[in-house]
Task: inverse folding
């Protein structure tokens, strides 16, 4: 599956959940994540999409780390399987007590998704 197909799958899935996956184009800031996912009542999630064999460039790693250092939620999803898992987890989070997730902030979202096995780009 090509990266643009993986991206379309994310966009369509997020839309079905009542959210938006905005394409992020930032002139002068190459390497920013592909999409900013916004779901009702949840913090924004910056998502970089790759094919199963895709790799982050060094510039992408720098930009993802900058966002993380600013306290943002950053995910890197590899292929159709991880996008599907991410969408299921977003749906689960939305079904739980959203207020408890908001009170804990985006760290709770990251922890929840890490526990579920997704690769997040939270570099230490």
Result:
């Amino acid at each position: 599956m090509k990266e643009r197909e993986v991206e379309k799958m994310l966009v369509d899935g997020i839309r079905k959940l009542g959210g938006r996956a905005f394409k992020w184009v930032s002139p002068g800031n190459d390497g920013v994540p592909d999409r900013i996912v916004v779901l009702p009542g949840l913090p924004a999630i910056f998502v970089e999409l790759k094919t199963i064999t895709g790799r982050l460039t060094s510039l992408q790693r720098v930009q993802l780390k900058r966002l993380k250092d600013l306290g943002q939620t950053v995910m890197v999803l590899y292929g159709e399987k991880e996008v599907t898992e991410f969408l299921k987890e977003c749906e689960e989070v939305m079904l739980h007590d959203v207020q408890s997730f908001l009170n804990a902030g985006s760290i709770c979202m990251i922890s929840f998704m890490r526990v579920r096995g997704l690769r997040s780009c939270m570099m230490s």
